[in-house]
Amino acid sequence: MSDTLVVRVRVLEEWDEIVLHVEPSTRIGDLKRMALDAAKVVQPESGYLMKFRGAELPDESRTIGDERIPPDAGLIVLRRRRSPVR
């Protein structure tokens, strides 16, 4: 039996912090989709990337366990191409 982890994902599109309970076997891409769904973001998930400790997690097929993301970790989901502030 695997333990669930609590992770906090900040979705910068909406400035929401989403608390998710996931398995270490959860793929990064699935985690990103769960966070975008919870924040009610309707744009395609391919337009977003996920970061942990300031670095992009480019291989979304890897799992949370593969990336050694600890319990209560903070992750960020943001647009791949951000618009300049005017």
Summarize the structure.
With 86 residues, the chain is mostly beta strands. The protein has one helix spanning 28-38, and strands at residues 5-11, 16-22, 48-52, 55-56, 73-79.
How are the SSEs ordered, and which strands pair?
Layout: E1 5-11, E2 16-22, H1 28-38, E3 48-52, E4 55-56, E5 73-79
Parallel strand pairs: 1-5
Antiparallel strand pairs: 1-2, 3-4, 3-5
Rg, rounded, reads 12 Å
Total of helices: 1
Helix percentage range: 10-25%
Q: Order of strands side by side in the largest beta sheet? A: 2-1-5-3-4
Q: What low-confidence regions span 5 or more consecutive residues with pLDDT below 50?
A: none
The gross shape turns out to be globular
Q: Proportion of β residues?
A: 25-35%
Q: Which structural class best describes the helix and strand composition?
A: mainly beta
Give the mean pLDDT: 90
Number of strands: 5
Biggest sheet descriptor? 5 strands, mixed
Cα(first) to Cα(last) distance is: 51 Å
Taken in chain order, the helices and strands follow as: EEHEEE
How would you characterize this protein structure?
The chain has 86 residues and is mainly beta. The chain is 13% helix and 33% strand. The chain has one helix and five strands, in the order ββαβββ. It has one helix at residues 28-38, and strands spanning 5-11, 16-22, 48-52, 55-56, 73-79. Strands 2-1-5-3-4 form a five-stranded mixed beta sheet, with helices on one face. β1 (5-11) and β2 (16-22) form a beta hairpin. The longest helix has 11 residues, at 28-38. The model has no long low-confidence stretch (mean pLDDT 90).
